[in-house]
Amino acid sequence: MNRMLQSYVQDAWWRPADGTTGAEVRDASTGEVVATVSSDGLDLGAVLHYGRTVGQGSLGALTFHQRALILKRLALVLQERKEELYELSYRTGATKNDSWVDIEGGIGVLFTYSSKGRRELPNTPSPHTRVQLDGPLEVLAKDGSFLGRHIRTTLPGVAVQINAFNFPVWGPLEKLAPAFLAGMPSVIKPATPTAYVTEHLVRIMVDSGLLPAGSVQLVTGSVRELFAHTRLGDVVSFTGSASTADSLRRHDAVQRGGVIFHAETDSINASVLGPDAAPGTPEFDAYVRQLVTEMTAKAGQKCTAIRRAIVPGMVADDVVEAVRSRIADKVVVGDPRSDGVTMGALASLEQREEVLRQVRTLLDGGGELVIGSTEAPEEHGAFLSPILLRFSDPTAERAHDTEAFGPVASLLAYETPEQAADLVVRGGGSLVTSVASGDPAFVADLTRRTAAANGRMLLLDRDDARSSTGHGSPLPMLVHGGPGRAGGGEELGGIRSVFHYMQRTAIQGSPEMLTAVTGVWHTGARATSDGVHPFRKSLEELRIGDQVVSQEREVTLDDIEHFAAFTGDTFYAHMDEDAAAANPFFPGRVAHGYLLVSFAAGLFVDPEPGPVLANYGLENLRFLTPVSPGDRIRVALTAKQIIPRETDEYGEVHWDAVLTNQRDEPVATYDVLTLVSKSPIPVAV
């Protein structure tokens, strides 16, 4: 299979000139040369320029929802051709289960971001495709003429992703999805040992014809000069070693050039067994299962793998024996293409040597080998059996600062809950810590003491042991990243990660100007009452600011008493004059808030069949001024936000509703949410 891998740049496949010598990549199990990798001769400056111009233009022409649908379609294409990726993944040393996490996990990220993007982001058409509101409105002048709020707009550069070798599919896709959704083009730089898998991933996406021009580029090989071509507006997301991240973070482009740098690096993750979790309890069994899984999945080559098993001293021996037994029963090391193999090889012979070097560092630092061997097997591949070390001094420095990035974990015993928390924090910042315990008080205390040192915490007990996705599985809707040694960056976390590729800006101005910038109507901006009820308008005809102002309706004591009897809401403020008058908020008996909302609907609704298909909710309801018997109310209803749905013949309209009394005092404010046909509905004759 040996061939020179290609890069995909400027919407074309590129390869180095004939005769170029590149880095050889070998099958992790057999040692066979799989591919050669080189980027010699590639103009990285041109790659970034193409993304900033062509990529930004093509993505910027699409709404958030249109981008989200492309992600879904890409996921479906990858599902259809995923077996091609599985076959290549075997060469990396990954078993079928290992590859499932990488391949299905990556595809799942695309599905998740497609769904969340359509649910949680606006679909406002041009010129507002790059604007997202962030937080509530701030009124800066008493008369409402000067307002402030925050918006997010797409950064004008390129999202450069530098990925690790252990997840050649999930790694690129979990970075691509939020950047793509934000409208930012990506340049993918895979790690050389598994670049052939990522190259094929990109080929499938390119073959689909779904990628907008310039939205995705791939560089296989070195990108040493890349930072020299980055500038303000670019984002670099790095996954790899802490030492490499530190050197990149110091680059002048980051320090003074304004390039945003996110890092997710190796960390000394911990898993704590609670003092209540004695042998034979579901929590003890779940802890052991999880520990062995994290030692052996991907041959321990996971940034989220458990490196420190922190257990009560009184059960430390039991944990060692349980781990030993489970490894003997469940773990078979070998070529992942062979039947019965449950743990494959490390990514390369060089990687195995690095793991063994770090194991020796751990041994020299006070560790004792209790399971496994440091002797390399005689096979040609980069195989290594699972290794468990035990430290008699749980505070030994090497146990908390040295990571062997392979099937290696260290056992540390604690005597008190406070000591357990201290041991977790000694890792200097982790991607994840898990806690296996059925004692809520212990779990709550440990979480409070250690959460600031972790990006994620998994709380494992008998109730979620079977449904839990596990210690080492980042989920697209939850934050992945961690403080300190873990890199200080943040990925995933649902729509949060989309905002990593958007600039937050405070805007201040009049309601008219804020409406123009955001595409969302603000109170005080121009409103249009053209004689046609807004409920008679389809999305094609409706415009932001279309408004209807109702006639007045008097609220009587009979109305209040009827509503109380009909609903059963006989709260004293509505039924007892003396008790209501004694309440500091009411002048006497007052109308029910929900009676007023119901009356308002009767005042603004146009009852005949038409484009408005359904009312599906209210948001931000506030009651501001009590309404007494004899007061008169009216409602102003204004089209506030229009959100077409890409896959349906209707969309959403958010209406600003303001209920006032005869003194023009606001009685209630809220948003009415309706589903409205995109096209006019023919009137039946």
Report the structural category: alpha/beta
Number of helices: 20
Whole-number radius of gyration?
Answer: 30 Å
User: N-to-C terminal Cα separation, in Å?
Assistant: 70 Å
In the predicted model, the low-confidence regions spanning at least 5 consecutive residues are none
Give the strand content. Answer: 15-25%
For the biggest β-sheet, the strand order reads: 14-15-16-13-12-17-18
Averaged pLDDT, please?
90
Query: Can you count the beta strands?
Result: 27
Q: Judging from the principal axes of the Cα atoms, what is the shape?
A: globular
Q: Helicity level, as a percent range? A: 25-40%
How would a textbook summarize the main sheet?
7 strands, mixed
Features:
6-stranded antiparallel β-sheet; 685 residues; 27 strands; 7-stranded mixed β-sheet; 20 helices; globular; alpha/beta
Description:
The chain contains 20 helices and 27 strands. The strands form seven sheets. Strands 14-15-16-13-12-17-18 form a seven-stranded mixed β-sheet, sandwiched between helices. Strands 22, 23, 24, 25, 26 and 27 form a six-stranded antiparallel β-sheet that branches. It has a five-stranded parallel β-sheet with strand order 9-8-7-10-11, sandwiched between helices. It is 32% helix and 24% strand. The relative contact order is 0.10. Helix 2 (64-80) packs antiparallel against helix 4 (96-120) and helix 9 crosses helix 10 (316-330). The protein is an alpha/beta fold and 685 residues long. The N and C termini lie far apart (70 Å).
